[in-house]
Design brief:
about 130 residues; alpha+beta; YaeB-like fold; 2 domains; five-stranded mixed β-sheet; 5 strands; about 25% strand
Length: about 130
């Protein structure tokens, strides 16, 4: 079989495979949400966002005094960077993560206790 004929078969099969793959991945992203997380930072933040979030007393005071807003916390959980070197990822049943981000153009760190069924925002430090 000539090289050009084999190349044609290869390109035809590759294009059919790519079409099926795009349809499959599109369906998968619609079922699980629009995020496609493979990196640890993304997977950790997505896991925290998927749970019921509660606030510790210190965070509730900041929310009541309007020093902190719930959109700031959501911004941390969407765009923050998890500091895995300081986080306690081996503890059971709850893991503690430190998420770095910014509030009102100041850098801050959010301490989150991530349990099986809920996540608790414990503190924020500037």
């Amino acid at each position: 079989m000539a090289f050009l004929k084999r190349l044609g078969f290869f390109i035809f099969g590759l294009s059919i495979g790519l079409v099926f793959l795009t349809i499959f991945l599109k369906k998968k992203s619609e079922e699980t949400g629009s995020e496609f997380c493979y990196f640890p930072n993304c997977r950790t933040l997505k896991d925290i966002r998927s749970k019921k979030i509660s606030y510790a007393d210190a965070i509730n005071e900041l929310l009541l005094n309007k020093e902190l807003d719930s959109t700031d916390i959501n911004n941390f959980l969407q765009n923050g960077d998890v500091d895995f070197s300081n986080s306690e990822t081996k503890t059971n049943p709850c893991k503690t993560y430190y998420i770095e981000g910014s509030v009102n153009k100041k850098s801050a760190t959010l301490k989150v206790k991530n349990c099986y069924e809920k996540a608790t925002i414990e503190s924020i430090s500037y």
